[in-house]
Amino acid sequence: MFRRRREVDETDAVDAVDDVDDVDAVAEDGPTTGPWDPADLPQDDSTVRVELGGVSIPVVDRVEVRVEVVEDVVVAAALADGASQLVVNAFAAPKSAGIWAEVRQEITDSLRNGGGAAEQVDGPFGPELRARIPNDTGGHEQARFIGVDGPRWFLRGLITGPAATDPSQAARLESVFRDIVVVRGGEAMAPRDPLPLHLPREIVEQAAAAADDAADPEERRLQLQERGPEITEIQ
Q1: Are 150 and 2 in contact (CB under 8 A)?
Q2: What are the b/e assignments for 131-169, b being 16+ CB within 10 Å?
Q3: What is the pLDDT of residues 70-117, one digit of tens each?
Q4: Can you name the residues that pair with 65 across neighbouring β-strands?
Q5: Torsion of CA 41, 45, 47, 53, to 10 degrees
Q6: Is the pTM for the entire model greater than 0.85?
Q7: Residues in Cβ contact with 123 at an 8 Å cutoff, skipping those fewer than 6 apart
Q8: What one-character DSSP code corresponds to residue 163?
């Protein structure tokens, strides 16, 4: 179900019913509360954010912002709050129907086939999954999968660590997730294509300088000046 569309016209409503069996997939009217589309962001918003292309992450005290890099491509943003972590991914989605219901079922099936488990529950963002994910030691790790369907985008979060089971530990990460801005852009993209991410320009410049000075490039930590959080590049 869409949670982030403020308006829906008759054509969209008909398309949504044609695209899916469940009429609940039609976009909801009503106020937007975040995560945000740029068109829905309050005009008086003054939040300082880390701009990563497809997502704009709010700066929150005590939350470290990390980026996951695979072959020099930024593939995800990770937010660390002590021993807890929230990994964020943003994807393109169809105009008239959300994909979170399908994704939840796919995650559930994958975990069960791999020796894990997942249970759907109602959370602060609507339906979510409480999961047990197999780890390298033969045990299981507790996790939460949260998701929000927006206008032509889908935002997914994976919470691990103490925040996966303790609401008080999760509060700060949930607040960050709620205040993310998803920048879908107007280009044509296939549903489920990841939205392109990149490092902020100032971080790229710092990375170049750090690479010249660091004896071990994998240990360099990239500071985002004048914004508070630490940015770590994870290779």
Answers
A1: yes
A2: bbbeeeeeeeebbbbbbbbbbbbbbbbbbbbebbeeeeb
A3: 888 888 999 999 999 999 999 999 988 899 999 999 999 999 999 999
A4: 79, 231
A5: 30
A6: no
A7: 144, 146
A8: G
Judged by phi (left if over 0) then psi (alpha if -120 to 50, else beta), residue 81 lies in beta
Does position 232 have pLDDT exceeding 60, yes or no? no
Position 116, amino acid: G
DSSP reduced 3-state for 148:
strand
pLDDT band at 165 (very low <50, low <70, confident <90, very high): very high
CB 58 within 8 A of CB 203: no
Rounded-to-integer distance, Cα 235 and Cα 232, Å: 10
Find out whether the peptide bond into 167 is cis, omega within 30 degrees of 0. Answer: no
Question: Which of 45, 67, 72 shows the shortest CA–CA distance to 54?
Answer: 67
Q: Token pair 């008909």 is at which residue? A: 14
